[in-house]
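Quick one: structure for this chain?
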Amino acid sequence: MSGGLDSCVTAAIARTDHELHALHANYGQRTERRELQAFHAQADHFGIANRLVVRLDYFAAIGGSSLIDAAIAVPDGDPDAEGIPNTYVPFRNAHFLSIATSWAEVIGARRIFIGAVAEDSPGYPDCRPEYYERMNAVIEAGTRPGSGIRIETPLIHMRKSAIVRRGVALGAPLDLSWSCYRLQGSACGTCDSCRLRLEAFEGAGAADPIAYDARFAEA
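Got it. Here's what it folds into:
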């Protein structure tokens, strides 16, 4: 659970049939403090007692992304942009899933839920459906026989607006989620993550319940 919109809705879906255990990673991202706050607020809402928060400081040493390198500016969202954006953290989700798999083996969990969305995959290759199919094959090959651990991606084929509608229908605490790549007090409203979030709420016919920077509101 990153603290973001997609993982918030994914948690709401997962809890309909499963007992939840929550994993969160601090990896030196710009909004690390705010994301951690959102994670704990959502975990409180869902009544999750068992939480694992890990630090992955080596991402900052690896670099290569504006989310973890202060020398690289986070760009404004551009719906016409092509290629991989500089907000992509190289192969990040593999690290998260490896930790989740290790923890699942220890606690006896059989499902790992992650809020990956294929709509993000042109810019974020570790959000593609085939990526998770192959990760499941790796997990099957690399865990104890009979562990039965599998990754579930309930949002993978959904549009962002449909994710918002699903979250509203399930009573997910969308007001406790955080998506902004830049700011930790109020969302910037202009980075790519904010742009996609705002478009999703607009497409769903719902008001985004989080606060945005006054400069964006006046624009």
